[in-house]
Specification:
Elements (H helix, E strand, L loop, with lengths): L3 E2 L30 H4 L3 E7 L13 E6 L5 E6 L3 E6 L4 E7 L6 E5 L5 E5 L7 E5 L4 E6 L6 E6 L5 E6 L3 E6 L7 E4 L5 E4 L5 E6 L4 E6 L9 E4 H5 L11 E6 L5 E6 L4 E5 L5 E5 L26 E3 L5 E4 L5 E5 L9 E2 L3 E3 L7 E4 L6 E4 L3 E6 L4
Parallel strand pairs: 22-26
Antiparallel strand pairs: 1-10, 2-30, 3-4, 4-5, 5-6, 7-8, 8-9, 9-10, 11-12, 12-13, 13-14, 15-16, 16-17, 17-18, 19-20, 20-21, 21-22, 23-24, 24-25, 25-27, 28-29, 29-30
């Protein structure tokens, strides 16, 4: 299929963002994939990536999302100055800048094919764009949403993905065609996630304080489970159930669902029956000043999520206005169902976006600058 030239309002993209000719061979500087429990307390900030090209811009752009490619060797950010930044993990360096000045960019995700990216627009229309970074051209536009896209979730093993929008729809797509394959009419769907097998997808709807679980093979029959988040919060803090939802994740071991919340703590839920396993709170530090997806008050920019699971599913890592919190899901909560962090990893910067590399013991955090973390094996 013919490609559509990338929208660029600079004289020449080739001088700014040449093709991603990156050797995908892991270097010796990447730590071995030892068990997470043996290294999680040893993570230290290792490499900070300031944006020298915007050092005179005030305010500095915000990092909106972070993603890793399937081999775990590339890290990508989407940023509020309408750029995509690519970083080489194995060499710990910035690699490329891609521009989307005409339509804006957020929620950038690697596809499973090498060099493929999808991302949501922030200007002019609400299309999702499929970019081939090899020649910096658009392969396809996914059009249909009539309001802001709040979340993109790529299927773990195929070329399908789910999008949520403020037009009160969830749409299912296949990268091979521009037409959506299914449309679900829901109230205020803002978050989506796939289980590790790719047979179930979850939709978070803060407007109704519910998480809907669908069988991907029979989604037309409606959700097979509805998790009532309001019931989970009651009687202690029901006011937190309807707003401030920042992230939705399944653990890779399939046992838990994580609902990131700006107020009252993150919720660790049983993936099978939706029951509350623990409220993940931290007594030290507050939340980062970011907008929850779909909200317009309470922060200075959106974020793809301030918490995530470790690849083994045991630990949850969460940001805030200071230090990186690590909760051990195998620990027992107190009598109120609250679980405090097992570790606080020292860093005084604000952390609004958190992602753990799915292939290696390496993680990234960000607010206005990207930070790589590696285990300090000398301690």
């Amino acid at each position: 299929m013919a490609s559509t030239p990338m929208d660029v309002d600079e004289p020449s993209l080739s001088t700014i963002a040449p093709a991603l000719n990156i050797t995908r061979t892991l270097g010796v500087n990447v730590p071995p994939t030892t068990k997470v429990k043996d290294v999680v307390a040893k993570f230290r900030p290792t490499k900070l990536f300031p944006r020298d090209d915007v050092k005179d811009v005030n305010p500095q752009p915000y990092i909106l999302s972070i993603d890793f490619d399937d081999p775990g060797e590339l890290c990508m950010t989407s940023e509020s100055d309408e750029t995509i930044q690519i970083y080489n993990v194995k060499e710990g360096r910035h690699d490329k800048t891609l521009l989307s000045k005409k339509y804006g960019v957020k929620l950038a995700k690697f596809t499973h094919s090498q060099g493929g990216i999808i991302y949501a627009s922030t200007k002019q229309n609400d299309a999702i764009r499929y970019l081939a970074t090899g020649d910096n051209s658009f392969i396809r536009y996914f059009e249909g949403h009539e309001a802001v896209v709040t979340n993109l979730a790529l299927h773990p093993g195929s070329d399908n993905f789910v999008s949520c929008s403020l037009d009160n729809t969830v749409r299912l797509w296949n990268l091979g065609t521009k037409q959506w394959t299914a449309k679900l009419l829901l109230q205020n769907p803002t978050l989506a996630a796939w289980d590790p097998s790719g047979t179930i997808f979850a939709i978070g709807c803060p407007g109704t304080a519910s998480i809907l679980l669908y069988d991907y093979r029979n989604y037309e029959k409606g959700p097979f489970t509805i998790i009532d988040v309001l019931r989970v919060w009651q009687p202690a803090e029901p006011e937190h159930a309807f707003k401030g939802w920042t992230a939705l994740h399944f653990s890779n071991n399939g046992k838990h669902i994580l609902l990131g919340c700006q107020n009252g703590g993150h919720l660790l839920l049983d993936a099978f029956d939706g029951s509350l396993k623990a409220v993940l709170k931290r007594s030290v530090g507050g939340r980062a000043k970011r907008l929850a997806p779909g909200e317009t008050e309470g922060g200075n920019a959106e974020s793809s999520g301030d918490c995530c699971f470790s690849p083994d599913g045991r630990f949850v890592l969460g940001g805030g206005n200071m230090d990186l919190a690590v909760w051990d899901t195998q620990s027992s909560p107190n009598e109120k169902g609250v679980l405090e962090p097992e570790y606080l990893l020292g860093d005084r910067r604000e952390t609004a976006v958190v992602e753990y590399n799915p292939r290696f013991n390496m993680l990234t955090t960000a607010d206005q600058e990207l930070l790589f973390w590696l285990p300090d094996n000398q301690n």
